[in-house]
Amino acid sequence: MTEMVVVRREGLYCVPGDFYIDPWRPVERAVITHAHGDHARWGHAHYLSSAPSVNILKSRLGKDINIEGLEYGERIVRNGVTISLHPAGHVLGSAQIRMEHRGEIWVASGDYKVGPDSTCAPFEPVRCHTFITESTFGLPIYRWDPQQQVFDDINAWWRANAAEGRASILYGYSFGKAQRLLSGLDPSIGPIVCHGAVEPLNRVYREGGVALPHTQLVSETDKADFRHAIVLAPPSASGSTWTRRFGDYSDAFASGWMLLRGARRRRGVDRGFVLSDHADWPGLLSAIRATEAQQVIVTHGSIPVLVRWLCQIGLDAKGFDTEYGEEDDDAPDDAPAPADGGAHAQADAGTDAQADAGTDAQAAAQSDGADPTDSTTAGKPARRRARTRAQPAMSDEEEDEDTGEGAVPAAAAGGEPSDA
C-alpha cells in the first residue's frame, strides 16, 4: 500500500495532492479539519475547510484569510486527488478529510466523537483503506456517561447554588465545549452569563443555525443577579481577578479529564463534570471498525495502547508523531503523557488510571476501568471554599471579556493561550 499521507516538519502531507492537513507550520495549501488552535494555525497561504467552519476560522484567525469552504460531501479534485469533507461530530464545522487517488481511499479524522451533540453534525463513518485517527482518550478507563445525565448533574449543581444565593462558574473551552454546555443548560434556573471570549463564538453558532439559550455578558448583568446565575468562562479565567466580581461562588470544570480525581484536585475547582468532545475508548473502537479500514494510523493521544490493541485484532496499525493536542480543550498540563510508550498511563497515580500499557490490551479493553461517576456527577450542592488560589496575569481574552474582542484571539498573532 502506497503512503498517500506522510509526516513532514510542517505537518501531515498528502503526497499526490500536494497539500497539508492541519499543518503546524505555515504552508501554501492547508486543509483544516476544525478550528481548534492545535489544528488551525495562522499563516497559511490558502485554507480549505468545511463551509460551517469558514466563519469560525475567520473569527479566530482573521477575516482576511484566504479560505474556501466545502459543503459536507461535496467533491473537488487537487492534482488528481479527490477531496471531500464529512462530519466528525467534534465541534461545529469539524470534518474528516476523505482523499481518493487511483482507487485508494484515505481518511484523516481530525478530532471526533461519536456521541450525541445538538450543536454540530454527527460523526459520519466513511469507508476507507487507511484511517488516520486521534486517540486523546485512547485508554480503556475512559468511558463516558450519557450526555443527558451530565447535563442533569450540571443543572442540579447550578440549581443548588442558586438556592443558596451563590454564583456558579463553569469552565470550558470557549469554542465548542462552551456551546455544547449551553445547549444543555436549563434557563429557568437563572441568567446565563458568558465571558467575552465565549460570546463571539455563541454568535457564530447561532448564525450557523444552532439553537442556544439566551446569554448575556457580565456588563449586561445586574450584580444582584449573579447570585442565581451560571457563568461560562474559559479555563484561563480560573483563579483570576476576573472571578472576584461574582462574590460568593462555586466553580466547576467540564472536561473528559475530570474523570480523574487527580486532575480535579490539581484544577482546584469545587466540581468536575465529565464531558468531552472527543471519543472515549469504546467510541474510538467503534469508529475505527465502522470505516472497515485495514490500516490505521494514530496521530495523538495514547498512541502505544491503541496501536497495540489494533494490531492484536489483526489490523495494520502505527503512529504518527504530530503536534496536535497541545492547545486542545481537553489537554491539561497534568493529563496522561500522550505517547510515552512506557508501562503506565500517567493519569492520577492513585486509583483513577490503573491501565497498564504493558498488559494485554484486549483484556484491558474489556475491563470496566475507573468509575466515571466518582463524585463528579453526583448533583450534590457545591461547598464554599476559601479563595486562596494564585492570581495569574490576565490574558488578552480575559481583558476583553466585556468587549467581545476575544473574537480574534492570540491565534492571529502566532498561537492561542493554552487551555490547561
Automatic annotation (TrEMBL):
GO terms for molecular function: exonuclease activity; ligase activity; RNA endonuclease activity. It comes from the Bacteria. Residues 334-380, 405-420 have a biased composition (Low complexity). Keywords: Exonuclease, Hydrolase, Ligase, Nuclease. The keyword Cytoplasm does not apply. Residues 321-420 are annotated as: Disordered. Its EC number is 3.1.-.-. Coiled coil: none annotated. SUPFAM superfamilies: Metallo-hydrolase/oxidoreductase. This is Ligase-associated DNA damage response exonuclease.
